[in-house]
Amino acid sequence: MEGTTTAFFAGQVTLTQLVQNLVYASGTVGALTVVAGLLMIDAGTTRSANLYNSTIEKMVGFFIGFATYFIIGFGFWAGQYYIMSGGTMMDSLKDWWFFGALSNAHAQKVDPAVWPGLNTFQIFIFFLACFAGIVNVLLHFAVSERMKASAFYVTCVVATVVSSVLSWAVWGSVGPLTNAGFHDFFGIGFVYIFPTGIAMVLVPQLGKRPGMFAPHPKVASYKAPSIGLAATGLITIFAGLPMVILSCLFFFDPETYAVSVTMADTSVGIAFNNYGISWAGGAITGAIISYRTKNYIYLLLGPLAGYVSGAPGFDVYLPWQMFLVSLGAPIAAWVVYNFTSKREIDEHKLFPLFIGAGFYALIMVGLVKSGTPRGGYFGITEGAYAFQHGQISVLMQLAGFALCLGAGILTGLVLSVVLKVTTGLRVPEDAQAEGLDKLIWGLDNESKS
């Protein structure tokens, strides 16, 4: 896309533009806060003998995803707006890849007729790159301590590219599925459900960690070193996500008019309150489950399940609706948790939260808010991309869930075949039991007493 000149376009760098830039920049702060919270949860629940290695692999995986997204990922997501305007996906990739004209242009030198609000879109590269990294951090929760680092890092590159393509289809307002009626305000499809699909393939092949379900000669039982630190990580995530909510809104004239990324009617206050009450509802039901079962885990999973249940619909729910929906989310997660635990499937985070609560979340939006107008783009009054021409429906929610989970499963199947014959996939059981911190880094963190 041509448009960079020696002229100065003051409309690209007004105070109004700066305010919007700061709003979206705050989303990157929120996303990084979420990463910090996830690392705290990992530090509190990973066996001490593997703790440093697990943390480092998550950090490296995050930055592999982050860098890969800068190189190629954003062009896929932005492509929906090019196609809406009569361009092509290749046009978007050429403009927004690492060396692209728009990803490297100074906003004041680009005619607004070519691309208005350029600073904001450039900040969105950073914002969405954070979530590309979070995809990899979440996947690592499922394969931690068992998957070879080399295999995981290759997976990070592939997962970033595939999730970027998926974001074009299922997150925004004019991608093929979102324009047709699939509604996912917070992007749980391509950020949460997609890596869960990959994990569904890899976890059975990686097997159980020593001591997780039965004593091992070197590991009598799998012990989490600090549940308190994990709880602190939970609150850190809670504190970071409100800033992300702001970055899932579009603002149009008059300047305080907000619509969601899906172009549904909403407001900043309603979206924030829905977010907060979803955590409260999940925490209440999670606490009831924990006290009834004497299992501490649902004091942690409950609030997260409540959040996941609301994430697709923070923009369209009313707070009382959100609270009622979130009360049921930990039950959906509990059903999956019990199913996998009884079958000694060693995955206690992604499956309950994103198959259980995630499926529940997408379906409940379809049931409770069926017929809600959204999709298209503000200002377009007719045609395939007319503002709010599409409606939320259960059928489209099912289609979105199936696409995101299916894309993850297919990615996992292809990767598992390739990795087995190249880098290898699984860390040997004896090495897992001995502890990767000691074997790889010479650290002896676990008390032998």
From TrEMBL:
Transmembrane portions of the chain: 22-41, 62-83, 121-139, 151-173, 185-206, 227-252, 272-289, 296-314, 320-339, 351-368, 398-419
BP GO annotations: ammonium homeostasis
Compartmental location: Membrane
Keyword Disulfide bond part of the UniProt annotation: no
MF-aspect GO terms: ammonium channel activity
Domain Ammonium transporter AmtB-like, residue spans: 32-439
Keyword annotations from UniProtKB, A to Z: Ammonia transport, Membrane, Transmembrane, Transmembrane helix, Transport
Entry keyword Membrane: yes
The organism's place on the tree of life at top rank: Bacteria
GO-annotated cellular components: membrane
Alphabetical list of Pfam families matching this protein: Ammonium_transp (PF00909)
Membrane association type: Multi-pass membrane protein
SUPFAM superfamilies found in the cross-reference section: Ammonium transporter
Family: Belongs to the ammonia transporter channel (TC 1.A.11.2) family.
Protein name (record): Ammonia channel protein AmtB
Species assigned in the record: Aminobacter aganoensis
